[in-house]
Every structure is written in structure tokens, then in C-alpha cells.
Amino acid sequence: MVEEGAYWIAWAQISGVGPVLLRRLQQHFGTLATAWNATKVELGEVEGFGFQTLEKVVQQRSRLHPEQLFTKHQQENSHFWTPADADYPRLLLETPSPPPMLYYRGEVELQENLGQKPMVGIVGTRQPSEYGIRWTRQISTALAKNGFTVVSGMAEGIDTESHIAAMKAGGRTIAVLGTGVDVIYPHKNRDLYKQILTAGLVVSEYPTKTPPDRTHFPKRNRIIAGLSRAILVMEAPLKSGALITATYANEFGRDVYALPGRVDDHPSQGCLKLLNQGASFILKELDELLTMLGAIPQIDGVEASTAPEQLSLPTLTSELKTVMDAFASEVLPFDLIVQQTGMTAGAVSGTLLQLELMGLVSQLPGMRYQKS
Q1: Residue 304 lies in a domain
Q2: Is the pLDDT of residue 304 over 50?
Q3: 137-165 pLDDT, tens per residue?
Q4: Which of 162, 191, 229, 347 is the most core-located residue (most Cβ within 10 A)?
């Protein structure tokens, strides 16, 4: 029997079928194996499958053999996950466009993949000021010491500073690349790359030996947002790729924070725009930020020895209540919750995460949920 992961690889080879359409196929048919054997008429029922895409599917599907592709892929890229794998990062899986293949190198920590260890993305300009560097180092250090994994893109500037500071503090970091996981870009970060492999993970949706391409980097930003519970934008001009990451974070229901700066500072214009659009402020009191992100603050570098007192649950917001009302006693798949609530997939994903953190909902294998 051909594994489901083989069909994720096979479908991804068909031109015009990207991560969003793959996600819709999986939600519509239940499995991509079922979708692979669907008729042209049945495929036409899926949103986004127009005449030209259907013609490509019919022409190319007959020439592809999922099992052979899977075997070949394993030989060329020994370490990768597909959404069919239990180890595929759970938060990323809940987004509307999870990569069909996520390649990795380094030290895997399953708690991160299962969403049991919080991850926070830190992004910003490649040409930060001393102010941006100082706050990036300070916040990355605080996050690492409080048990967070820092996620960034290994680019120059803010990304590099966040990775280094997290590792210096004894924490873990994940670098999301716009190249293959074996291609170091920029090359000046080769030493940083080696350090990350021993203190974290390097991931990419592109196969080994994939060189840098300017179209890859905006796409990889959705992975940074998808892996993270929140995105912190440290310094970013108006045309910064960090704003693309923030946009994805909003679509995925993640919290967005921005470091305020002077109104006449070019590197801060993007952050000021985000704050004007409703992003939360990164303020001097880092304990408050850590509390908002779900960490137990350290006092004088020592972790609190006792767990915080259990608080009573707050009144649910309208979105939280809408999703909770969709549950009866049975187990519900993710796509059915989307249908029953009438909310977007990104909004449902973010709301379910909040309900899980509140202990009201739990996730089962196969993107299914039930009341806790």
C-alpha cells in the first residue's frame, strides 16, 4: 500500500497545484490518495480547480507514480516531513498552506513539533540600527531563558542577531531558509549555520541543492509565521519582508508585536505602520511581554519554583464561543469546524489554539478536535 506521504509528493509535482490547493484537496477528499484517484468532474468541485488546472492534472497525473517518487525522494532528501507524518509541525499543519514537503537538518525536538513548546518568530530589517540590535538581543535572550524557541530566517541583520542571542542564552532556535537546507545563504553566516545545527533546526520547503531565488524568501515567511505562536517585528522599513511575515501571522490568527521607534527613523516606519494597524507594542517591561506570550518570568535569572495559581476561565469572546458551540460530544475534523462556524481557516486555526491553551479543546491525530 502506498503511503499517504507519497501522494503529497506526487501532487506537488503537478504544475499549478501549490500548497493552498493541496490543502483544499486534502480537506475536500479527506486524503490525497483519494484525491489522486478522483475523476475530473470530482476534482472540479474543489475551489480553485479551473479548466486549465484540471487539464494539467489529467495530463501529468498519468505519468507520475507516487510510490516511485517517494522512494526517489527519500534517497535524495533523507530528512523531510509531509503533512501525513505525525511529526510534521502541528501549528504549521493548521495553516491554509502547509508545505507539502518540509526538509530539515539539525536536532529535532518533538515538543516543538507537537506544539507543546512555544515558538516565537523574530523578524526585521537586514540593516538594523544599534537600537534594533540591542532590543533584538535582549528579547531573544529573555525568550530563550524562559523556555521559548526563537524562529527566524537566518538573513543578515535582525534574523542573525536573534539566532545568536538565543543560542548564547542556552536556548534553541529554528532557521527557516529560502534555499535548500544544505545551501548556506548568505554565505557569511556559514558559522552561524553550523551552530544552529547543534542547537536547533534548519528547515525549508525547498529540496537539497536549491540555490537562492528572490521569489523564495517571501514564500518562506509564511513558514516562520506558521511555526510561531507570535511574531515580533523588531525594526522594519515600509518595504521590508518582515511586514509580509506579519501579514501571514494575521491571516493565521497569530499575535503580532512591533518595536516602536521614532517617527522620522526609516528602519521603524514598518513597525509604526503595524502598530497603527493594531499590532501590540513591545515595551520596556519585558516581563509583561513574556507573560502575554505565556511564559513564567524569571526573577534575577532564577525560574520561579512553583507553578502559578490556577485562574478561573475568562468570559469567552464571540469567536471563541462560536467555535466552542460547534462542538457536541463527538470528534470534529478541522474542515467541518470551518464549515459549521462560517469562519476562515486561519481564524478557526488561531481560535482552536487559544481554546487548547485554555484547556477547553484537545487535538487528535488527523486534524480532529474534541472538547477536553
Answers
A1: no
A2: no
A3: 999 999 999 999 999 999 999 999 999 99
A4: 162
The C-alpha angle with vertex 219 and arms to 218 and 222, in degrees rounded to 5, equals: 100
Burial of 76 (C-beta count, 10 Å sphere; 0-12/13-18/19+): exposed
226-272 tens-digit pLDDT: 999 999 999 999 989 999 999 999 999 999 999 998 888 888 999 99
Domain edge (last residue) among 27, 60, 76? 76
In a domain, 98, yes or no: no
- Cα atoms found within 13 Å of the Cα of residue 168, Cβ hemisphere only: 14
In degrees rounded to 5, what are phi and psi of residue 202?
-115, 130
- For residue 340, count CB atoms less than 10 angstroms from its CB and return exposed for 0-12, middle for 13-18, buried for 19 or more: middle
Q: Has residue 299 got a pLDDT over 60?
A: no
Structural domain includes residue 236: yes
Domain of 355 in residue numbering reads as 318-371
pTM of the full structure: 0.78
Strand, coil or helix: 149: strand
Residues 323 and 261 in one domain: no
H-helix or E-strand spanning residue 69: helix 66-76
Handedness of CA 237, 241, 245, 247 (dihedral sign): positive
**The C-alpha cell that represents 130 in the structure block:** 544599534
pLDDT at 227: 97
CATH assignment at residue 161:
3.40.50.450
CB atoms within 10 A of CB 154: 23
Nearest to 286 by CA among 272, 305, 299, 271: 299
Q: Find the helix packing angle between 334-341 and 19-29, rounded to 10°.
A: 90
CATH number where 54 lies = 1.10.150.20
Helix (H) or strand (E) holding 60: helix 51-61
Task: Summarize pLDDT for 59-113 with one digit per residue, the tens.
Answer: 999 999 999 999 998 888 889 999 999 999 999 999 999 999 999 999 999 999 9
- Exposure string over 90-127, b if 16+ CB within 10 A, otherwise e: bbbbbbbbbbbbbbbbbeeeeebbebeebbbbbbbbee
Would you state the cell numbers that stand for residue 309, as one nine-digit string? 495559581
The DSSP string of 97-115 is S--S-EEEEE---HHHHTT
Number of domains in the chain: 3
